[in-house]
Amino acid sequence: MDLKNLALGRHVLIEYYGCTTEIIENNGLIEQYMREAADHAGARVVESVFHHFNPYGVSGAVIIAESHLTIHTWPEYDFASVDVYTCGDEVDPSKAADYLSVKLQAKKTELMEIPRGIAGKIKQFANQRDNKKPEKIEMEKSEG
Amino acid sequence: MDLKNLALGRHVLIEYYGCTTEIIENNGLIEQYMREAADHAGARVVESVFHHFNPYGVSGAVIIAESHLTIHTWPEYDFASVDVYTCGDEVDPSKAADYLSVKLQAKKTELMEIPRGIAGKIKQFANQRDNKKPEKIEMEKSEG
């Protein structure tokens, strides 16, 4: 059974409970860890944007060639919520999740993975093209 | 039954199948629609970052005071994949989803909502503080 072509992307949603407060309120550290997490997953970082909220919390996104990572932290609750969305076979989002679990010093990590862009539905609903209907979904995009 | 305090955030994952190709390959238009979608949801846009990939596709993130929106488009498949993650009671992520469904001219929209940051687990794992343990989770953050 060939499982490769079922979906375009893998989306991992991770909740980090009981993180170290001082880490998840540090904007610079969070941006560094998120970019390092992308590296650990095998992704190529394109751009990132991070914002520190007053009085608490960091929100940020890292655009990677293979989709994105995002984070929101609630230092007052020692809680951080992360998404890692990747496409292609070269990148493993669970490696980013594991890396951040260590770096944020989470007491409890909960993770779920959701396939994104179901190939069968893409084929069903794509517009007709002259010789361009995507009969075969290529999982590997060079970028994007 | 009070449902307000079960989770910090609402995360809506949306797949738009059969979009209009010319729209979802247009970086400027996608950024505009994403920022407008945030407005429609009642969110406050803080920053955004968008990237156009060669040869196909747009990836972008909008950081809002209430969390984020992201998008990835595959014009070659007429497919776009969006996330709208919000916290607080003032913002309705489904309004952003509906707005984009119209703007991307999707033939088929599929949506699921996942609660993020479960209050009971936050209380269970938060570090002990002097008079600061979050016995009461405030759903309304002024920002973040």
Provide structural commentary.
Helix content of chain A is 26%, strand content 38%. By secondary structure, chain A is an alpha+beta fold. The first copy, chain A, has a single domain (9-120), classed as S-adenosylmethionine decarboxylase (4-Layer Sandwich). Chain A has a six-stranded antiparallel β-sheet. In chain A, β4 and β5 form a beta hairpin. In chain A, α2 (27-41) packs antiparallel against α3. The two termini of chain A are 27 Å apart. Residues 138-144 of chain A have low confidence and may be disordered. At the A-B interface, β1, β2, β3, β4 and β5 of A face β1, β2, β3, β4 and β5 of B. Chains A, B: It catalyses: S-adenosyl-L-methionine + H(+) = S-adenosyl 3-(methylsulfanyl)propylamine + CO2. Chains A, B: Residues 129-144 have a biased composition (Basic and acidic residues). Chains A, B: It is an enzyme of class 4 (lyase). Chains A, B: Its cofactor is pyruvate.
Compact overview of the structure:
Chain A has helices at 21-24, 27-41, 93-103, 119-125; strands spanning 7-17, 45-52, 58-64, 67-74, 79-87, 108-118. Chain A has 144 residues and is of the alpha+beta class. The interface between A and B is large, with 57 and 56 residues.
